[in-house]
Amino acid sequence: MNRIFYIILLLIANHSFAQKIFHQPNAKGTWQYICPFRDRSYILAIQQGIDEKESFGGATAANIYFGKSSLTTDKVFWKDKIYLKFANDNTSREDYNGDGIKDILIFSETGGRGGNAYYYLFLINPKTKKIVRVKNFEKIVNPEYNQKYKVIASYGLSGSNYYSIYKISKDNKAYQIGKSFEDTFENDPKELDKRIREILKKPVH
């Protein structure tokens, strides 16, 4: 019986989802930890510097984990690869789907001589203790959530500045609605409201 018990423990210890992942003093790269819920055993961890040769634009590859930590083992619910520039204070909290819960934005990189910023978005659900990445959000330039119309307004800086309007689908994908339009009205909020209303009136195919 003791031998069987030992084998079971060995199998558990060697399982990839039953090892110590977080808070390892000698783990490769630079680690950043975010506690998204009141229960601080749940952790969103970013591991940067895993491979400086693997890059996308001006950002390098990083691993991101979501899991539950304990003194001896960590349970990792999911792991993903993202691309980030090294930066301090690269995360922020803001509601991006209108549920009143502040989600997590992680800064990715800049373009357009520093005027265009890109982010990853992770939606938070404290009730189910789940975190979900919004696909394609990292392609949206300078995103800002419009609480009034429940949309994401993107403002791209280029030769001519332009707006694009996005929504998040039920399967957590960011998608554009309507066509992008040039900012010929100098950020006038009334005109922007009008343009968003016009887009929302048109059927989505």
Please give a structural write-up.
About 5% of the residues have low confidence. The chain folds into 2 domains: 121 residues, Lipocalin (Beta Barrel); 65 residues. The protein is mainly beta and 205 residues long. It has a 4-stranded antiparallel β-sheet with strand order 1-2-3-4, with no helix packed on it. Strands 5-6-7-8 form a 4-stranded antiparallel β-sheet, with no helix packed on it. A 4-stranded antiparallel β-sheet has the order 9-10-11-12, covered by helices on one side.
Strands of the widest sheet, in order across it, are: 1-2-3-4
Termini separation (Å)?
Answer: 63 Å
The ordered H/E elements are HEEEEEEEEEEEEH
**Helix and strand composition category:** mainly beta
Name the features.
single chain; four-stranded antiparallel β-sheet; 2 helices; Lipocalin; mainly beta; globular; 2 domains; 205 residues
